[in-house]
Amino acid sequence: MNENRREKVTLAVLVRNEPGVLSRVAGLFTRRGYNIHSLAVGPTEKKEISRITIVIEEEPERLEQVEKQLHKLIDVLKIINLTNVQRVERELCLIQVNGEKRSDILQIVDIFRAKIVDVSPKEVMVEVTGDTEKIDAIIQMLAGYGISEIVRTGKIALARSTQS
Amino acid sequence: MAKTGAEILVDTLVELGVEYVFGYPGGAVLPIYDALYSSSLKHILTRHEQGAAHAADGYARTSGKVGVVIATSGPGATNLVTGLANAYMDSVPLVAITGQVQSGLIGKDSFQEADVLGITMPITKHNYLVKDENRIESVLREAFYIASTGRPGPVLVDITKDALMNYVSRKKSKNGLDLPGYRVLKEGHPRQIALARKLIKEAQKPLLYVGGGAQDASEILIQFAENLDIPVTTTLMGIGAFPGDHELSLGMLGMHGSPWANLAVQNCDLLIAVGARFDDRVTGSLSKFAEKAKVIHIDIDAAEIGKNVAAYVPIVGDAKTVLAQLLDDTKLCHREWIQEIRNFELPMQLPKEPKITKCTDCTAPNMKNSDVPPPCRKKDSVDPKVVLEMVSDLLQDDLIVATDVGQNQMWAAQYVRVKKPRSFITSGGLGTMGYGLPAAIGAKLGRPDRSVVLVTGDGSFQMNIQELATIASYGIPVKIVLLNNRVLGMVRQWQTIFYESRYSQTCTGSVPDFCVLASAYGIPAVRIKNQDQLGLLQEALTSEGPYLVEVSVDPDESVWPMVAPGAALCEMFHAAKAPTPSWQRRAKS
Fold first, then answer.
1. What is the pTM (predicted TM-score) of this model?
2. Is residue B112 annotated as a catalytic residue, yes or no?
3. Interchain proximity A31–B182, CB inside 8 Å
4. I need a labelling partner for B140 at 20 to 30 A (CA). Which of B321, B512, B564, B578 fits?
C-alpha cells in the first residue's frame, strides 16, 4: 500500500449508545485493514446516542468503502464526513515538561494560550487545546526543555452552523 | 399465566413461523430445551453444533426462510463459529440462539463461559447479548428481521441463563422494531435506472454476470435476458438463478469456469453484474478483468459496489425489483455477439507437465478389508464427471444438489445441470469442508418435495461425518454420492501444478471403509468401482430412504479448465477439457 497516497479524513459517527458499539466500530477497522489515526468517543445531547469522531488515513478510493462499511453496522445511525466542511476541531493535550526554565515555558504557554495546570519542584504540566497543528507546534516548542510525558485526546470536530 | 424467558422465546419462534430448529442441548440452554419439550416446534438434534449451523444454513437456502440454530454457552457457541462465518460469506439468513452463563457469572471465567458476542462480531450481520428476560421477544423479532431483509445474513442472540429462567413481567413487548440505524433500499435510483437502460441499448456486446443475490430473481432474469438477447454467466453462488440448459447460458465463470464465459467477460463491452460481488475466484487478475467493459453493478449492499471493481452505473437495490425497473418492452438482438462467443478460439495453454512422483506420505495403514482399493491405484476407477451427468439425467428438475468443498464441488458446479434457483447448495465464499452433509440434511427438510443429492469427497465428508447419525435417526432421505479418490484432491491438484508434485499430507489412504461405516449407521451403501457398475447409481437414487454411493475416483483426475490465481480470465489451462456448453448439448439432443 502506498502510504503517500493516503489522505486524512475526519468522520463523525453517531451510534446507538449500546454496550459493544465501540468494539464493533474498532473491529470493523481492524478487519478491513483501515488505519485509524485518532478516535474520540463521548455522549451527545441525546442520551441514547454517542458520537465517535474518527480520523482515518486512507487511500482516496478506499475512503468511500470505509463509510459504506460503517453504514452496515446496525448500531450506526449517521455518518458525517467533516473533512471538506467548515468546522471547528479541537484536541486536548497535557504535557509534563521539565520546569528548570520555567519563565521560558511560561512565555510559550502564553503564546499558545495554554495553561499551567500543575507545578512541582522539577516539572510543570501544561494543558493546551486546539487543532492538531497547534498542538504539534507547542509540543515541538517544548521538546527542547525535556518532555517526560504527553497525553492527547483524539480529535473532536463539529460543523459550523452557518453553512448548513 | 406467567411465562419464563425460554417459554417466550419458543412462543416467539412459533409466531415467527419457524418450523424447524437445529441444535444441541447443554447447561445454559436447558430452559429452552425444557420449553421445546412441550412445543410444536420440530427440533433436529445434530451430532455437533457445527452440523446444526450448516443444517440451518442448508434449510434456509432451499426454503428461502430463516434458518434457526440453538447451542449452549462456551464450546457449544464456539462450535457455531464456522457455520456463522460460512452463512455470513454466502449471505444466508440465520438466527443463532446461544445460551450464556448467568449474568452474575459473566466475566468471571465461569464454567462454559466464552465471549460469544465478541467472537462472533465480525462474522455476523448483527449480534445481541440479552440479560433481561423482558427483551427476549423484541430482540428475536429484530434478529429475524435483520437476518432476512436487505442483504441476508446470520444474526446471533446470546441469552443469559437467568434471563431464560426468569418470569417475564412485561405482558407484550411493543410491536414496532427499534432499528433506527437499519434501512433497506429495494428500488434502484431512477436516474441510475435510466442510465443503465441507455447503456444496455447502446451496447454491442453485453453480458449478464449473475451471482447468489439473484436466486430469487430467476423468473424476471430469464425474461430480461431473453428480451434483450443477452448471454448469461453465473458465479458459483448464482448457479440455478439462470437455467444451466438455456441457450443463453454460458455456464459458470472464474477459476474453474467455462472458457466461453471467461472469454465473454474479457471481450464484452457492457458487464451487467446482478447480485454478484467480484470475488477473486471469479475475477482472477482484477486489473485485467473485463477491461473492455463498462460495468453496471446491481447489488442490495451498497458496500459491494466499488469494493473490487469500479462501477460505471451503480444501482443499489434488490435484484428482482431492479430488474423489473429495467425491464420495458424493448427487444434487442445480439446474435452476432452470441455467435462470436460460441466461435471463440479456446486458449491452448497447458500447465507445466507434472513430474511423475510417487506419493510419499501414503503412510495411512490400509484396512485389512481387501475390498477397499489401495491409495493411488489407477485402475478400478470411474470418471466423476460421468457420474454427475448421470445424476442430472436421472433426477432432472427435481434435483437439489448440495456439495462439499474441493474437486467434488467444482465438478458438481461444472457437470450437474441445475435448472432451478435455490437448488445448488454450496459453501462458496468461505469454502468450508464438511459443509455438505449437514447442509444436505437442512436442504431436504427445507424442500421435502425435491430430491436432495449430496456430492462430497472423502476429505470433506469426514469433517462432519458424525451427521450420518442425524440422517439415520430421522430417516432423512438424502442421497450421498461420495467421490472417493483417497486424496485431498484439490490441494493435491495445486501441489501437482504449483509445487512440483510434492504431495505433502494430501494422501488420506483407504480409511475408513465408507460402505461398512454407512451400514454401522444403518444406512444402505454401495460401492461403484468401474463404469460397468454405474447402473447401481439409479437404484440408489430412486430408493426411498438415505443411501450412500461410494464412487472410486482416480486420484490424478483434475478439475479443468483452470485459471491460476491472479492470472487473467483468458489465461486458462486445459480450456479444451471444459464441459460441453449448453448450446452444443441442445444441438445434440
1. 0.94
2. yes
3. no
4. B321
Whole-angstrom CA distances from A94 to A54, A105, B40 are 20, 14, 64
Residues of chain A with CATH 3.30.70.1150: 87-159
Q: What is the mean pLDDT of chain B?
A: 94
What gap in Å lies between CA B80 and CA B75, rounded to an integer?
A: 9
| For residue B323, pLDDT beyond 60 | yes
Amino acid identity for residue A20 in this structure: G
User: Which CATH number applies to A7-81?
Assistant: 3.30.70.260
pLDDT confidence of B364, banded at 50, 70, 90? very low
The segment(s) of chain A belonging to CATH 3.30.70.260 are 7-81
Where does B358-559 sit in CATH, by number? 3.40.50.970
Q: Do A20 and B122 touch (CB under 8 A)?
A: no
pLDDT above 90 for B92: yes
Angle between helices B5-15 and B136-148 (to 10 degrees): 30
Task: Answer yes or no: do A72 and B303 touch at CB < 8 A.
Answer: yes
Residue boundaries of the structural domains of chain B:
2-169, 190-342, 358-559
Architecture of the B190-342 domain = 3-Layer(aba) Sandwich (3.40)
Nearest CA distance, A74 vs chain B (angstrom): 5
Residue B349 buriedness (CB in 10 A; 0-12 / 13-18 / 19+): middle
Cis previous bond, B561, omega within 30? yes
Residue B362 has pLDDT above 70, yes or no: no
Specify the range with the lowest mean pLDDT, choosing from A45-49, B284-288, B350-354: B350-354
Tell me which CATH code domain B2-169 carries: 3.40.50.970
Per-residue confidence band for B347, with pLDDT thresholds at 50, 70 and 90: confident
Classified by CATH at the fold level, domain A87-159 comes out as Alpha-Beta Plaits (3.30.70)
Residues in chain B whose Cβ is within 8 Å of chain A: 117-118, 121-122, 125-126, 129, 146, 179-182, 301-303, 306-307
ipTM: 0.90
